[in-house]
Automatic annotation (TrEMBL):
Record's keyword annotation contains Transcription: yes
Domain Response regulatory residues, every copy: 15-131
Any GO molecular function: DNA binding
Domain HTH luxR-type as annotated: residue spans: 157-222
Example of a GO biological process term: phosphorelay signal transduction system
Signal peptide range: none
Alphabetical keyword list: DNA-binding, Phosphoprotein, Transcription, Transcription regulation
Protein name in the entry: Response regulator transcription factor
Length: 226
C-alpha cells in the first residue's frame, strides 16, 4: 500500500502520536504541531511500549518518537511498529546529534530524524515530508553522513552493526533500568529462565561481569539516560 498523500489545504489533518517521557517536551512539541492546520496530536505516550500500544489501536497517521524513553526506546518502538503497522509513518526526535542513531533509525523503519534543539524550525516540515513518504534529515547532517558512509565503504566496514539482538537489547535496557528478572519476564511475556539466559548471553557477548557494567554500556548505547 502506498502512503496517504496529504495536501494540507484540502484534506483532513495528519493524526499524530507523540511519544516522549518528558511532559514539558511533549507540551512544547504539541504546541508546535497543533498550531498547524494540517497537523493534530491525537495521542501522547510517556514511553516506547505505551506508544506501540496506542498506535495499534488505530487512528494514527504518524508516530513522532523520542529516542531515549523508559521501558522501550523510540528505536525499539519504531522497529515493532514498522513490523506491525507498515503503513504508519515514523519520525524520530532526539537531542543527540548521533550518526549511529541515524543509521539505526533508518533500519528501524523511520522516515525522518529531527533534533529537539531545532524542532521549532524543522519538525513541521519533517512531519509533512515523512507522510508524503519522503525521507527527512535535519539540515547540515546530510554531508557529514554521506562522507562518513563513503569512508566506511572505502575501509570495507559498511554500516555499523549492532552487536546484540533486538531481544537482547530490550532485556539490556530493562536490566539497566533496575527491573528484576521476574519483572522483565512479565513485561516481555517470557519466562524468568529465558530472561536469565539472555542476560548471561549479554554478559558473555559484551565481555562484562555485572549489572553495573551493563548499565554503563546501556548509557553509552543511548538506551537509557545517564
Amino acid at each position: 500500500m502506498t502512503a496517504p498523500i496529504h495536501d494540507h489545504r484540502t484534506t483532513a489533518p495528519i493524526r499524530v502520536l507523540l511519544a516522549d517521557d518528558h511532559t514539558l517536551v511533549r507540551r512544547g512539541v504539541r504546541l508546535i504541531l497543533d498550531a498547524e492546520p494540517d497537523l493534530t496530536v491525537v495521542a501522547e505516550a510517556g514511553d516506547g511500549a505505551e506508544a506501540v500500544e496506542l498506535a495499534r489501536r488505530g487512528g494514527i497517521d504518524l508516530a513522532v518518537l523520542d529516542v531515549a524513553m523508559p521501558r522501550a526506546t523510540g528505536l525499539q518502538a519504531a522497529r515493532e511498529l514498522s513490523r506491525r503497522l507498515p503503513d504508519l509513518r515514523i519520525l524520530i526526535l532526539t537531542m543527540y546529534d548521533n550518526e549511529q542513531y541515524f543509521f539505526e533509525a533508518l533500519k528501524a523503519g523511520a522516515g525522518g530524524f529531527v533534533l529537539k534543539s531545532a524542532a521549532d524550525r524543522d519538525l513541521v516540515e519533517a512531519c509533512r515530508a515523512v507522510v508524503r513518504d519522503e525521507p527527512f534529515i535535519y539540515p547540515g547532517a546530510e554531508r557529514a553522513l554521506v562522507r562518513s558512509y563513503l569512508d566506511r565503504l572505502r575501509r570495507g566496514d559498511g554500516v555499523p552493526a549492532r552487536p546484540i539482538t533486538e531481544r537482547e537489547e530490550e532485556i539490556l535496557k530493562l536490566v539497566a533500568e533496575g527491573h528484576t528478572s521476574k519483572e522483565i519476564g512479565e513485561l516481555l511475556f517470557i519466562s524468568v529462565k529465558t530472561v536469565e539466559r539472555h542476560r548471561a548471553n549479554l554478559l558473555q557477548k559484551l565481555g562484562m561481569r555485572d549489572r553495573l557494567e551493563l548499565t554503563r554500556y546501556a548509557i553509552r548505547a543511548g538506551l537509557i539516560d545517564p
